[in-house]
Structure formats: C-alpha cells, structure tokens
Design goal:
The protein is 80% helix and 5% strand. By secondary structure, it is mainly alpha-helical. The longest helix has 83 residues, at 87-169. The protein binds zinc ion. Residues 192, 199, 201-202, 204, 223, 225-226, 228 line the site of zinc ion (ZN).
C-alpha cells in the first residue's frame, strides 16, 4: 500500500506539472492575439489619419481651383478694361477686380493654412507609421518566441502525459478512480500530506487514533473532514532518500 500511495503522490505531482504546461500552451495564442489587436488598433488609427490627410488635400484643391477661377475672372476683367470708354463703367470694373483680388488673397491664405496642416498631419502619420513598423518587428520576434515556448510545452506535455499513463497503470483501478474524483472536487489536490496530525488539504486535525493508524502506512485512509486521500511521511527516511537521489 505504501508504494501505491507514493505513486499516487507522484501522479499528483505529474498532474500539477501537466496543468501548468496546459496553462502555458493555452496562454501562448492568447498573448499573440493581444499583441495583434494592439497592432490592429494602431493600423485603424493610421487609416483615420490617412482619411484626414485626404480630406485636407481635397479642401486645398478646392481653394486652388477657386483661386484659378478668380485669376481667370481678373484676366477677363482686365481685358475688358482696355475696351471700356465710359469712365463710370471703367471704375466699376476696376472695383470689381480689386474685390476679386482681395477675395483671392484670403483664399491663398487658406491654401497656406491647409499646406501647413497637411505638413504636420503627414509628419504625425510618418511617425506613427515608423513606430508601427517597430512594433510589428518586435511582435514578429515575440510571436516566434511564444510559438517556440508553446511547442516546447506541447512536447513536454506529451512526454509527461506518457509518463503519467505508465504511472497510472501501476495503481489499482479503484484507487485511481477515487483519486480522479477527488482531484476534480478538491481543486486539483486529491492526496494530502498529514503533518503534525494536520491534513494539508483542509488544515484540520486528524483524530489521534487515525493518526496512529496512518503512520503504519498499511492501508488507504481518508481525511474525515475533506475526504482527500491522506498520507504520512517519515521525515527522516524522506530526507535520507532525498540525499541519496
Ligand atoms: Zn482534509
């Protein structure tokens, strides 16, 4: 029976290692996904910056074409001036030209403002694009490292699962079934060490009679409180064994 209990403890250690590996395997893709989402957010941000730049360019073009229209009107008006004989009419056309020129100067200011805004938008866009490239390069490396970690964890998992299978074969089927049931119900801990007459699973005291029996290590015993399989370890022997290993 002592061999069976020792093996159960080893199986439990193996199961805990397997759970940890499983956690690593599952966390890998999650970590990659988070970084990908971060990149997507920056890309969306860049896309909206690009739209703003296009919008700004469009406004600039509109002003430019309005300026050209005005220049054309001014040219025509100036040509008309040469044919006008009437002084009053001449003054009127001259005034009109001045007015158009004034409006045009305002539009040219707007064009300058547009160009300035465009310049700063383009600079900001370029900066973001550069940092995105850096983030992407870092992500590629991280993703590779994570994938390598996951593959390693998967290999370790298969290897240890195989070992666990062989270990389980040495355990009586009924005891193993009991272990599995306790593991599910006991938050992963099915076999609990009893030290100083206290169950390490639930931290409750074991009755003295049972504690004495437990130390004989001749049969499977259960904690009267949490029902976990309990065992007792002869510290001196355990330490000797540890040293010789
Ligand atoms: Zn207990």
């Amino acid at each position: 029976m002592i061999k069976q209990i020792e093996m159960l403890v080893k199986i439990q250690e193996k199961d805990q290692a397997l759970d940890q590996l499983k956690g690593q395997i599952l966390a890998g893709p999650e970590r990659i996904k988070e970084s990908q989402e971060e990149i997507e957010r920056v890309e969306q941000d860049l896309e909206s910056d690009k739209n703003r730049i296009q919008e700004c360019r469009k406004v600039q073009r509109e002003y430019e074409s309005a300026v050209e229209d005005c220049a054309e009107r001014i040219r025509k008006s100036k040509a008309r001036l040469l044919t006008i004989k009437n002084n009053k009419e001449y003054q009127a056309v001259l005034k009109e030209i001045e007015g158009t020129e004034g409006a045009n100067a305002e539009k040219e200011d707007e064009i300058l403002a547009c160009m300035e805004e465009l310049e700063s938008l383009k600079q900001a866009f370029q900066d973001k694009q550069n940092s995105l490239l850096a983030v992407k390069a870092r992500f590629e490396q991280e993703a590779k490292a994570i994938q390598a970690e996951v593959r390693q964890a998967q290999d370790a998992f298969s290897e240890q699962e195989k070992q666990r299978g062989n270990m389980a074969k040495t355990i009586d089927a009924k005891i193993l079934a009991r272990y599995e049931l306790l593991k599910t119900g006991g938050g992963g801990l099915a076999v609990a060490l009893v030290e100083n007459a206290t169950c390490s699973g639930c931290h409750m005291s074991i009755p003295p009679q049972m504690y004495n029996e437990l130390q004989r290590r001749d049969s499977l015993r259960f904690c009267p409180n949490c029902e976990r399989i309990i065992y007792w370890k002869n510290r001196d022997v355990a330490e000797e064994k540890h040293v010789s290993e």
